[in-house]
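User: Let's play a game. I give you a shape written as tokens, and you guess the letters that built it. Ready? Here's round one.
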């Protein structure tokens, strides 16, 4: 859909990109049970570049409270271990040759509160990204009006549509955050 002077489909696509990024960030926040996706946000310095753990080894979940990483290259074991320790996930890898075991500790109330704060930070980053897209849409409408391409009324209608889209997307961010908070808070 396109309002005069503003491509709403493009703005919506860009805002949904922020939501997808938030979903990825949330998948990395552990909730007390093991998941291979919890390591998705962790990057390893390997071969002169930063790459996801899934590109240097096989990530599996052999037990409900354990994640295992079978590193393909022996020289990368230390780099993978370092990346996990520095990732702020609260995991302590146990190295056994080329296999790293990550026992998932029980979450205490203090750690749950920390994870909720991290979730809020991720949600705020998504809101900021959505607001940047909104600003671009508003600027496009104002510029088209200033250049005489559209009338003042059309500019106002375009701005209102951009604001409605923004409110809808921020509402989705808030509902995703609420679900994640409930998931983290469950004992």
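Assistant: Ready! My guess for every position:
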């Amino acid at each position: 859909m396109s309002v005069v002077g503003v491509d709403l489909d493009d703005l919506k696509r860009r805002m949904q990109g922020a939501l997808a990024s938030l979903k990825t960030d949330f998948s990395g926040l552990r909730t007390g049970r093991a998941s291979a996706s919890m390591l998705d946000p962790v990057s390893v310095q390997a071969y002169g570049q930063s790459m996801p753990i899934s590109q240097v080894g096989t990530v599996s979940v052999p037990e409900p409270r354990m994640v295992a990483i079978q590193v393909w290259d022996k020289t990368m074991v230390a780099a993978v271990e370092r990346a996990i320790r520095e990732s702020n996930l609260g995991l302590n890898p146990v190295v056994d040759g080329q296999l790293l075991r990550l026992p998932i500790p029980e979450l205490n109330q203090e750690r749950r509160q920390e994870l909720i704060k991290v979730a809020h930070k991720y949600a705020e980053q998504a809101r900021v990204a959505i607001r940047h897209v909104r600003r671009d849409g508003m600027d496009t409408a104002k510029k088209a009006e200033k250049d005489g391409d559209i009338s003042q009324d059309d500019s106002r209608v375009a701005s209102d549509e951009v604001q409605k889209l923004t409110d809808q997307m921020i509402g989705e961010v808030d509902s995703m955050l609420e679900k994640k908070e409930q998931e983290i808070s469950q004992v």
